[in-house]
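User: My instructor asked us to take a sequence, write out its structure as tokens, and then describe one feature of it. I'm not sure where to start. Here is the sequence I was given:
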Amino acid sequence: MFLLVFVFLNSQIFSQNVYFYPIPSGTTSDLTFLYSIGNANYYISGVNGLLLKSTNSGLSEWNPVALGITNNLSGFLLKNNITSSTHFVFGSSGVLIGTTNSGQNWASQVSNTTAQLNAGTAVTGDSVLNYKYLIVGNSGTIIYKLIVPGTGNWIPVTGITTANLKTVYSIGKTVWAGGSNGTMLKSINAGINWTQQVTGISAEINSILFKSETLGFAVCNGGIILKTTNGGTNWTQLNSGTVQNLNQIVSISQYDLTFFWVMGNAGVVLRTSNAGQSWLNDPFAPNVNFSSGLFVNNYLYVVANQGKIYKRSLDTSFHSQDPSSLDGNNIRSFFTYSGIFDIDTRSQNYPGFEWPKDSGKFAIFSAGLTLAGKVNGVLRMASASYKGEYYPGYCNNGVFYTDGRFKIYKYTKGFDTPSSWDWIHWSDMVPFGAPFIDVNNNGSFEYLIDTPGVRYAKQTLFICLTDASDSTHNGGEGFGGGTQPMGAELHLTAWVYDSPDYLRNVQFLSYDIINKSTIAWDNLSTGIVSDLDLGSADDDFIGCDTNLQLGFCYNGDNSDPVYGANPPAVGMTLLRSPLNRNVTPNIRLKMTSFSHFSCTSCTPPPCESTPTGEPYGAYLMLSGYKKDSTCWLNPMYNPPKKTKFCYPGDPETNIGWNEVQGSIWNCNKDSTGAVHAPNPSGDRRYIIGSGANNFRMMPGESNKFVIAQLIARGTSNLNSVTRLKQLTDSVRTFYETNFPIGIRKVADIIPEKFNLFQNYPNPFNPVTN
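Assistant: Let's start with the prediction itself. The structure tokens for your sequence are:
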């Protein structure tokens, strides 16, 4: 009885659509900074001498603290690693007020300046004189006070800069300070001496955060985010996706990941879990000017202008390490909430297809399903190659929605129980296509009766994604990107088996693609874009088998620095392709192209290079052309034959066109050219395409795209390709037997629901229905 009540309450929590919960502050004055003294006392500074205090862990009740001043308060002195009962709040006209008993009493101090004071830190050095409180402010103001012995005056540091210093941060005795005109200062001796760092910007720096003495971020006006990996010697500008002023950056570690959050004006709340490579703007943030944030009990609390305080659950953005890895057999691959898989973004981009599992050897760097088509004649794309343009959620008439239900779900047979979080909440995703075993055949998921996942699978992973948010579309995605959203919704199911033995080196991925916009997609192309790094990344070849609808990667010679002698071959086979209902009779498209693109430092011609920020070039490549619309040429014919399938020959028998026969480096729609043979082995990326000029998906129409990614090892690098093809043939037979495709026209309407019922007695029986 208790368990049922528990489930009811949680399902209510996770079905709400509002994720910034307002908290009454009792004021309409602008709030500037949120700060904690220990785990019991929380403070908010504001204008006109405002200081609010809360002593409850939910931060739901705030009461004013009488300071007897009218100065605008800017913030608190961050104590960093110093545990102390001494704290300071400060602001305009050099006002400085301190407490020595954790906020029970406050008293004014002589700051020896009339400048606006903006930010402070406690510096821990390697001598008594290096332990100090340090505050920065306008007109280059820097003042400090020794922590030990703890008495004495505030001492100004002069002659450093005339810039308005808005932020300061310290690790040990290393201190950084930033401010107007892109000013960045650094001290390596606890603020005694300072050097100027080059940021390359003129915008005001509002907040600095360092996670180590090398890795740091700075957020600025105009939507600028800076990152350094060498302690500030060099700063690079990241794409934040906004031009609003950014006011503070904070971080939290959870699930072995570090998440960075940025608060800014006009409702901007950004977050990243991949060290700033991509930033997502929270779609539910209210349109206020956020000034500061603080993590308390798995919530982010933020304060803003007009006395606004909000509480936000972190559940919608934390996708833990464990649920994002599919590892129920010999392969471990990672899946992300941006739509890419086979990539490990927990701390930085890292290859994410590991084989054998736990070996530390990887065969694929990244992959994802990309969609591209014309909407009212204008190209739109949902790209997934390196960063991804999707996000957990759903789409309704082209409008993006998300809430706490949308995350990566994972079920492992024999490990998860009905008390597991994902099992309890699996029903939240059933309306969006999450598979389950319907034990009592009543068509609904009952968590105490039914079982999550694909029948007989050892492990199942599910996530519902959409590209409908403008904030996820980025010209720096890696493969095109940056167009308007398509309004696509993807229901991704990935699953594995641990028996029979030949399926232990296979993973299955099924995408339900739904047009959830209000406009048809024309000239549609779909396909898997993948960066293959088979062991060492610089000695690979690729090829395809059109009969098996297989794209594969193998080593250019028989020795790989990672996999050693007789390295394996890895690939993906298209098991089910989209159905083109725009023609009569309907046509299953199958694999319509296999092409590749090159890394930016590789030697082939420019029309084969990575189409970063080139959506139309990426669309052409997805459709089987080079990015300037030039055709690929098969050099095995005389004259060379135009084709959409690169290297369809057999590497082991050397029959047909493969990389040993070389390629023609033609661009500008040239249909001739010299053959460069053999190709130099190197970094390889391929595209398995399925589309057509007359392929249209109407609003509400759905299609299925299913692949298996698989790996095999033979007696040589070339024999591994043969073994991979043999495995592919077995996998295709298994899939077609156990997931049959039957087409029967019942009406000229799109059915409301499709159900695929499991065969019996079991898929491994010689006779099955």
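For the description part of your assignment, you could build on this observation: The first strand starts at residue 20 and ends at 23. Try explaining in your own words what that tells you about the chain.
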